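TL;DR need structure tokens for one chain.
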Amino acid sequence: RAHLARLLHEEGRYQEAVEHYLAARRDKPQDVGILDGLGATHLKQGRADEALRVLTEALSYQPENPVLHRRIGKAYLETNRHAEAVESLRRAIGYGPFLAQAHIDLGYAHMGNGELVKAIEAFEQGLSLDPLQAAASQTLGELYLKVYGAAANAR
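>> reply
TL;DR here they are.
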């Protein structure tokens, strides 16, 4: 059932995926892969609070899992809880320093906190790991203009 749920998720059939994840969870309630998939699917549905609940449960079974910390950080981002997002994403990077998306999400969290120089640093690190992230690259360019363009114009 979990395999079918993953396929449905990949096809964008999120509600069906949730149903299959929930059925798989009845058989294996502590399976981190199932909980992670369910949380990821909730995020795709825009149900960040539900994703947080499920992902936090998964984290209780694997507290050093960088992917879970990143997804939790993403859920905090989607609920505009930027300080919590920064904390979770830093943990994700601590456990998985090569997770490009964690660095990029950290950049967005710093932006939400108004910490633009820290955001630039996070985006640069993420893009050094995965330079094909077009949206992050555009955001980084806009940040450069905002931070350094403003400094150059002030001279």
